[in-house]
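User: quick one, sequence for these tokens?
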């Protein structure tokens, strides 16, 4: 059975993707920090899947979860590297906000890749999906710190794409605009005009359906009503 690790699975995109991949036949490990939300997810997923409390900023804890998956299943087929936070602002805000966004969205995402990639290299197979953002492509006013974290993740994604695709490992960054989750609750359009979490699942299905010769480095999902 194929195995998948989803970070940031307690809500929003990650939760939807965890349930979707389980339905598609993956053996899922779903991680995040909020244990109450994880318990509800565990019930929905069922006992054959794993749910673990994990803060991606804690390197030792990330190593423990990845080792557990490898020990139990012999490998990891899909990483959905999704955990992230948002903060408004670029300058004139508390330094802790900068540390926290970079620490989660960039360092945290790297912490997970740093543990997963060596295992995928050994097997010369696997799929990595890094969740960046449209803010990783364009730095809009007042989201400079968030953008910096997502631009940084695209740099890591591109480097890994060039390194790992020749070995048979898929690497893609998802760069969505407004997705209908708690994070985008203050978006400029109504929820029904946003990208839906289902669209993210469909994007994953598309990536997995491609032949071994076809690779997508970045998938940019624009929100139509934001372009008007
Ligand atoms: N919604 C959008 O419009 C949009 C657009 C582009 C990109 N994105 C990206 O999509 C990803 C998912 O966001 P979302 O929209 O689904 O928002 P969300 O509902 O707030 O989900 C964020 C997830 O990340 C987890 N998380 C945050 N910090 C973490 C940490 N230190 N360790 C482990 N997990 C952590 C949260 O769980 P806990 O709090 O339980 O840990 C939560 O499950 C993020 O990377 C975000 O930047 C979102």
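Assistant:
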């Amino acid at each position: 059975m194929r195995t998948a690790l989803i970070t940031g699975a307690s809500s929003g995109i990650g939760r939807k993707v965890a349930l979707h991949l389980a339905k598609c036949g993956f053996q899922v490990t779903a991680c995040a920090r909020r244990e109450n939300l994880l318990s509800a997810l565990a019930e929905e997923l069922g006992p054959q899947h794993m749910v673990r409390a994990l803060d991606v900023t804690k390197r030792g804890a990330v190593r423990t979860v990845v080792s557990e998956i490898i020990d139990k299943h012999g490998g990891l087929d899909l990483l959905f590297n999704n955990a992230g936070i948002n903060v408004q602002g670029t300058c004139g805000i508390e330094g802790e906000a900068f540390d926290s966004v970079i620490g989660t969205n960039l360092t945290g995402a790297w912490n997970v890749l740093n543990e997963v990639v060596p295992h995928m290299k050994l097997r010369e197979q696997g799929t990595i999906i890094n969740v960046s953002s449209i803010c990783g492509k364009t730095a809009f006013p007042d989201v400079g710190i968030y953008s910096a974290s997502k631009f940084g993740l695209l740099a890591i994604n591109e480097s890994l794409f060039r390194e790992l695709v020749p070995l048979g490992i898929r690497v893609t960054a998802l760069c969505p605009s407004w997705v209908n989750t708690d994070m985008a609750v203050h978006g400029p359009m109504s929820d029904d005009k946003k990208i839906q979490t289902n669209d993210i699942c469909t994007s994953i299905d598309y990536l997995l359906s491609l032949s071994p010769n076809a690779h997508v480095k970045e998938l940019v999902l624009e929100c139509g009503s934001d372009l008007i």
